[in-house]
Amino acid sequence: METDMGKMEGIRAAITGASSGIGRATALRMAKEGADLALIARNRERLEETAEAVRALSRKAVVLEADITDPQQVRNAVDEAVRQLGGLDVFHCNAGIYLRCEAKDLRMDQIRKIMEVNYFGCLNCVYAVLPLFLDQKKGTIVTTCSMDGKKGVPPDAAYVGSKFAMNGFFQVLRQELRGTGIHVATIYPSRMDTPQIAHVDCPRITPKGDPDLVAKAVIRAVVKKKKELMVPGFSCHLLTWADAISPSLSDWLVRVNGLAGSENGTAPINEAR
């Protein structure tokens, strides 16, 4: 997937979960394309590392420590991003956590935590930036969802539930904001090589992808006004087409290809992407 080099020149973008993984990759890719950035996450030390890498590319980087589950912290981060960057054109809702646990073993507090971060945390970001974008009659909201929001894969029941909720909300938001000047895009990555899933080994047929692939998709969604992009494209589309034809067929594909993966003993990391 190619990006349009330099097409983000002059764009001011905020990214949540920018301290590692997909968020960090997106920050660096946007900086290479000419954007100035507000970097949002809980871990200031790692945010500063991302910021230094962005500044090395001669772009502005604003470090904003915030927890997306706190609406006021998110609103403050948006206000500060606007103040320091002189405005905001793009907001990438990317922060999230992952939990690998069979449905029968889940506790309700675990499910609520996943929903609080992945779903409600994402909505906190939307409602913090939406008034600004509506007022200026332009802006782009991009969210990192997951292929788990299109086809659930064991043993990720709680995570899958949060991503299906995100998928549904953004489908409606996209339609309701048509004609307002606000573009809404959703990215659906398969498993990417990030710290969150370091404890998961994936089958050879679907190895962990490079987070930069998602970063390129985010930029394509912004520049080309794409509504939905899957990463990688062909294999993800194949699974969703199979599920549309027959859930039994897609369940079989998940099973025979070992898409659930296996744990390798590495301690799981519940950090923003």
SSE layout:
Blueprint: E1 12-16, H1 21-32, E2 36-41, H2 44-55, E3 61-65, H3 71-85, E4 90-93, H4 108-136, E5 139-144, H5 157-176, E6 182-189, E7 200-201, H6 211-223, E8 228-231, H7 233-245, H8 247-256, E9 262-263
Parallel strand pairs: 1-2, 1-4, 2-3, 4-5, 5-6, 6-8
Antiparallel strand pairs: 7-9
CATH superfamily: NAD(P)-binding Rossmann-like Domain
Oligomer kind: single chain
Q: Tell the overall outline.
A: globular
Provide the CATH top-level class. Answer: Alpha Beta
Low-confidence stretches: none
Structural class: alpha/beta
Largest sheet: 7 strands, parallel
Strand percentage:
15-25%
Number of strands: 9
Order the strands across the largest sheet as they lie in space: 3-2-1-4-5-6-8
CATH architecture heading: 3-Layer(aba) Sandwich
Q: What's the end-to-end separation, in Å?
A: 21 Å
What's the CATH topology label? Rossmann fold
Radius of gyration: 18 Å
- Could you state the order of secondary-structure elements as H and E? EHEHEHEHEHEEHEHHE
Mean pLDDT: 92
Number of domains: 1
Helix content: 40-55%
What does this molecule look like?
- With 273 residues, the protein is an alpha/beta fold.
- It has a single domain (12-263), classed as Rossmann fold, CATH 3.40.50.720.
- 45% of the residues lie in helices and 15% in strands.
- The chain is built from eight helices and nine strands.
- The chain has helices spanning 21-32, 44-55, 71-85, 108-136, 157-176, 211-223, 233-245, 247-256, and strands spanning 12-16, 36-41, 61-65, 90-93, 139-144, 182-189, 200-201, 228-231, 262-263.
- A seven-stranded parallel sheet has the order 3-2-1-4-5-6-8, with helices on both faces. The chain has a two-stranded antiparallel sheet with strand order 7-9.
- The longest helix has 29 residues, at 108-136.
- The two termini are 21 Å apart.
- 46% of the residues are buried.
- The mean pLDDT is 92.
